[in-house]
Amino acid sequence: MKVGWIFSSFIFLLIFVLLSKNELANVNAVIVENNPFYGLSNEKIKTVESISDDKLMKIKVEYAPEAIEIGSPEFFKATLYHVNTNEIALHADIDIVVTKNGKELYKASYEFSQPFVHTPNGIDLSSYKFPDSGQYEISVKVLGINFMPANPTQASFTTNIADSNNKYLIEIEK
User: Fold this and answer.
1) What does pLDDT average to over the chain?
2) DSSP label at residue 111
3) Of 63-67, 77-81, 84-88, 98-102, which gets the smallest average pLDDT?
4) Most CB contacts within 10 A, which of 43, 101, 115, 151?
5) Burial class (CB in 10 A: 0-12, 13-18, 19+), 74
6) pLDDT at 31
7) Predicted TM-score of the model (pTM)
């Protein structure tokens, strides 16, 4: 009886693990396949730049696609530059935050259960599924540079999501 219980438990666990792996593989494959920053998509990448509140960082946000199926993710790439040299800010501690009407909806660091995202090359890739149309704000917050804490600063971008024929049209501006 004990051997039968152990055997059936093992089979059940094996089925669960195999199904879970396939489901995760499918989700990750869709995200990679549709992500224009991995070079597997022909979507046009749009760019908007702004200067941080303290005027020390230039923050470039790239995004694609311009139109997404409702429920699909929008992809973002944030790159940080030093204003005075136009060089990429290495080893930056940043966070990308999406808000609507002052309510925080997404924070990139929560994906890693960390207070910020460390990016050795000054570039962070992220994605977000907008729940509905309307005006959002995407903020790129800088919390440290070159392994040193910095006075927190940010650049914010107004993001307009318009509903059109079961798609969201996306426009980000400074």
Assistant:
1) 84
2) G
3) 63-67
4) 43
5) buried
6) 52
7) 0.78
